[in-house]
Write a structure and sequence with these properties.
Layout (H helix, E strand, L loop, with lengths): L13 H18 L4 H11 L6 H13 L17 H14 L3 H11 L2 H20 L20
Length: 152
């Protein structure tokens, strides 16, 4: 998690950057009382990931509604990664790398016990489909990415 805190989003891999924007977009849409999946559909379709939007929405609902901790997400253009975003990015990276024990341990801190297995399964499905689209959420990139390349 600490490798992400206060970093620029441009330091993220393309898949991790996409998830950061999706998490921020979902949170902002929900706060504005707009339907998050409708707000995010264009971004997911543009990355050829529309088929996982439902799982992503359910994941975000559980994290925000059933979670045990405060979730502070930045605005879409916020120049730094917040503490909660860093936790989430590390979690997604662990999912992509198959670190199941770490994923379960972190989810145990974030949500109630009955949600852990279901959330881990959703995340694994999303990460696998992202990998198929060459967007594995691996964390930090070796060099800053062009964040306007595919998802403006």
């Amino acid at each position: 998690m600490y490798r992400f805190i206060d970093r620029s989003p441009s330091r993220l891999s393309e898949g991790s950057h996409f998830l950061l924007r999706a998490m921020r977009g979902w949170t902002l849409a929900a706060a504005a009382r707009r339907c998050p999946p409708v707000s995010l559909a264009g971004s997911f379709a543009g990355m050829e990931l529309l088929h996982v939007l439902g799982d992503f929405h359910q994941f975000m609902c559980e994290i925000h509604c059933c979670g045990q901790r405060l979730k502070a997400m930045g605005a879409i253009t916020h120049p730094r990664i917040t503490e909660f975003e860093a936790v989430m990015l590390a979690l997604w990276s662990d999912v992509a790398q198959g670190n199941e024990e770490q994923v379960s341990a972190v989810l145990d801190l974030l949500v109630s016990q009955p949600s852990i297995e279901r959330l881990a399964a959703r995340m694994t499905h999303i990460a696998a489909d992202m990998k198929q689209a060459d967007l594995s959420p691996t964390g930090l990139a070796n060099a800053p990415i062009d964040i306007t390349r595919r998802h403006g």
